[in-house]
Amino acid sequence: MAAQEAVRHPVFARLWSKAIGPALERAGVTEHRRRLLAGLSGEVVEVGAGNGLNFAHYPPEVTRVLAVEPEPDLRALAEEAAGAAPVPVEVVAGRAERVPAAEESFDAAVVCLTLCSVANQHAALTDLWRVLRPGGELRFFEHVQAESPRMRQVQRAVDATFWPLLAGGCHTGRDTRSAIEAAGFTITGLDAFPFPETRVPSPSASHILGTAVRGR
Q1: 3-state secondary structure of 158
Q2: I need a surface site. Which of 3, 77, 95, 127 has the fewest CB within 10 A?
Q3: Do residues 212 and 188 lie in contact, with contact meaning Cβ atoms separated by under 8 Å?
Q4: What pTM, to 2 d.p., does this model score?
Q5: Which CATH number fits domain 3-214: 3.40.50.300, 3.40.50.150, 2.40.50.140, 2.60.120.10?
Q6: What is the pLDDT of residues 135-151, one digit of tens each?
């Protein structure tokens, strides 16, 4: 792996695998993962695969998954998860901004809680557009910019201070829907909802889950 492709967040990787990920599972994220992946078929690229929590939910019509993960500790866990996956999964090093794949080589692309933390969101999305075949589908599940102006202020404040440092580069307030469209995709389905639902509003609670297609 080229040195510039490494993204090392060992503390966050441990927190994600031992605490944050399991907490999200208890809160019901598994159902959103299933919705995200339902109906996929053919060859799929997943960027920011983390420790491979999506792998178990790929439908049998998927013939191959290329799982791209830049963080070494998370990637090692993803390799373990790939061995138990119901479909063939190849885990590789790489960044979303430079997917290690040829142009027009996949039927679908998946981003799941990933676009909040990539260094360059536009570059990541345009590279996914590159590796998708014409008419290929982008599946996304991301936490995004809040609807409330007051919560947007909170998001801007935490994103400018401690949040990215503690959360592996994550930003709470990105306008990911607009970024998907700006990269050349046409959104074909979108569900916006808070997750997880908590008594005290969280800057990372606003989520979108949906589909978009690459034009020809």
Answers
A1: helix
A2: 3
A3: yes
A4: 0.92
A5: 3.40.50.150
A6: 999 999 999 999 999 99
